[in-house]
Design brief:
607 residues, alpha/beta, eight-stranded mixed β-sheet, eight-stranded parallel β-barrel, 24 helices, globular, sugar transport, EC 2.7.3.9, kinase
Length: 607
């Protein structure tokens, strides 16, 4: 749409809308950018499921009806997938099809049909609700977002069972799609419709719909409370996915402002995407390896497309979710082999399973803990569940013959615990050698530094491992005694707290003294406000969610080491987190205003 036509269209909308009804509603920026357009509202009601018992002679036909519905839904996704170019969006849709083939989901549903004589709809919703209950108790956002994926897929299966057909989204070009929730297939359809943006009432940055929106470069704000009550079809909406908000029925002045911001944003986006494959080398020659944090293999294409030099954190615990049986050694091997081959020649760092009461799985008997963040989790749990641990380690070691693989142990508290973890790796290696199974003998082994104890004794770790990785999400939580999931104290979660900065410096210096690289894989790595501080403190590598990589790499290529070190030294001398925040924000905003608009968490640090 040209500028004249766009202005005329918006003028027409203003004649129809009472600008006095303007509303501004906060959400979370899931896919960066600015979108402006009339609302296309999608209001789907939950499918009503009848609970009925069937006659025993109908069991097999009822099971076949279930499989027919699953096949129909997989085919619907296949039609959408076939219309898309190759890329990470196709991989996500493929993952959705795999969910609809999940043997655990299907077998449990079939069991209820056979044993309880439940109709297929009733059996399917019962099993789904059981899975959703487990996912809903997880502290990890990524796990909870998988519940949203499952809910949407099962709604489609139920519609197929009932002979209903969900309305296919077909928004006009230039519109903003508004819905309570959207599936990845819905999001994929928007690519060909050329929508201006999307807004949902639920979801987070790690939902598959959000990942799809980022890969298709559609501005998106999610988690907007009561969005369907606030927006009527045809309302003009600004999707401010820089700051994480929407403006319903904006003023003409606001429209002009955001049109200019959108154009500026797109120009900057095109610039950094052209350079995404360049290495992150500073003006004076400092090479910073920038890697990706991923949890499922379909995110790997997104990471590589955004210029990741490998994977700095592969969250292997997601293989243990939503199933009745433990993943086998063979499954660990096949998963790691696939990721390594896809990522070659870059290294993939696999974190051993970081499970516990905060990341629940029905595969383990876990006691209810009053403080799960400090309870039986991560390496502590792995050492207790030794057979399960050794199975995963054997799978990883076998996969190591297919590419550069590294193993990282989470939440290591001291050298005794580290020693036990290293012994387990050696035991797994000996088991494979005794059985005559091919495996990698020479792999890097590292630890996550996530507690004050680990940070303060990093010197002892650095002399025993090949790399250190600082997990700032937990390090901040444990150091400042802040539950990062508790909104009442979330304001105290301060990455620039003097204690956090000193601990990061301590770890970086311990690594340098022992010639061991130190990476950082927490949320701080993805925030452009902190790039200079982290590198100035001596962090050598950064690992982050894929969409943040181009912005961070561009900052590094535009910087000098002396400037980064100077800012870090200034920040270390201040007395409070608020003062440090002000200093860092002022410095980075002066040098990288567009980078901050693109990359700060939910728009923090923007204009």
């Amino acid at each position: 749409m040209n500028d004249g036509a766009e202005s005329a269209a918006f003028s027409g909308l203003f004649r129809q809308v009472d600008v006095g009804l303007r509303r501004e509603i906060d959400g979370a920026a899931a896919s960066p950018g600015v979108g402006i357009g009339p609302a296309y509202v999608v209001d789907r009601r939950r499918v009503h499921v009848l609970h009925t018992h069937i006659d025993r002679d109908r069991v097999e036909s009822e099971i076949e009806r279930l499989h027919e519905a699953l096949r129909a839904c997989r085919q619907q996704i296949e039609v959408v997938k076939s219309k898309l170019p190759h890329g990470e969006h196709r991989q996500i849709l493929k993952a959705q099809q795999m969910i609809l083939r999940d043997p655990d989901l299907i077998q449990r549903t079939e069991t209820l049909i056979r044993e309880d004589l439940a109709n297929a709809e009733w059996a399917l919703t019962t099993v789904t609700d059981q899975i959703l209950e487990v996912l809903g108790h997880a502290d990890d956002n990524y796990i909870r977002e998988r519940g949203s994926d499952l809910t949407y897929l099962i709604e489609n299966v139920l519609q197929a069972l009932l002979g209903e057909h969900g309305d296919e989204i077909d928004p006009p070009a230039g519109s903003v799609v508004v819905a309570q929730d959207l599936s990845p297939a819905d999001t994929a359809r928007m690519h060909r419709c050329q929508v201006a943006g999307l807004v949902t009432g639920v979801g987070g940055k790690t939902s598959h719909s959000a990942i799809m929106a980022r890969s298709l470069q559609i501005p998106a704000v999610v988690g907007v409370d009561d969005v369907l009550a606030a927006v009527d079809a045809g309302d003009l909406i600004v999707v401010d996915a820089v700051r994480g908000r929407i403006i319903v029925r904006p003023t003409p002045e606001e429209v002009a402002h955001f049109q200019a911001e959108r154009d500026r944003h797109l120009a900057f986006e095109q610039k950094i995407r052209k350079e995404h494959a360049f290495p992150a080398v500073s003006i004076d020659g400092l090479h910073v390896r920038v890697r990706a944090n991923i949890a499922i293999s379909e995110e790997l294409d997104l990471a590589l497309r955004h210029g990741a030099e490998g994977v700095g954190l592969y969250r292997s615990e997601y293989m243990f979710m939503n199933r009745d049986t433990l993943p086998s050694e063979e499954e660990h091997y096949r998963m790691a082999k696939h990721v390594l081959r896809r990522c070659a020649p870059y290294t993939v760092v696999f974190r051993t399973f970081d499970l516990g009461a905060d990341k629940p799985t029905k595969l383990l008997e876990m006691e209810d803990e009053r403080n799960p963040a400090m309870g039986m989790r991560s390496l502590r749990l792995a050492l207790r569940e030794r057979d399960m641990f050794l199975s995963q380690l054997r799978g990883f070691l076998r996969a190591g013959v297919h590419g550069p693989l590294a193993i990282m142990l989470p939440l290591v508290g001291g050298v005794d615990e580290l020693g036990a973890g290293l012994d387990a790796i050696e035991e797994a290696r000996d088991q494979l050698a005794t059985a005559g199974v091919a495996h990698a003998d020479d792999i890097d082994i590292g630890v996550m530094i996530e507690t004050p104890a680990a940070a303060l004794t990093a010197e002892h770790f650095a002399s025993r491992v090949d790399f250190l990785s600082i997990g700032t999400n937990d390090l901040i939580q444990y150091t400042l005694a802040i539950d990062r999931e508790n909104e009442a104290v979330s304001y105290l979660y301060q990455p620039m707290h003097p204690a956090i900065l000193r601990l990061i410096k301590e770890v970086a210096e311990a690594g340098a003294r022992n010639n061991v690289p130190v990476s950082l894989c927490g949320e701080m790595a993805a925030d452009p406000r902190y790039t200079w501080v982290l590198l100035g403190l001596g962090v050598a590598e950064l690992s982050m969610h894929p969409s943040a990589i181009p912005v961070i790499k561009h900052i590094i290529r535009s910087s000098k080491t002396d400037d980064m070190k100077a800012l870090a030294q200034r920040v270390l001398k201040v007395d409070s987190a608020s003062e440090a925040d002000e200093l860092v924000l002022a410095t980075m905003r002066a040098r990288f205003p567009e980078h901050l608009r693109h990359g700060c968490s939910e728009g923090e640090g923007g204009p």
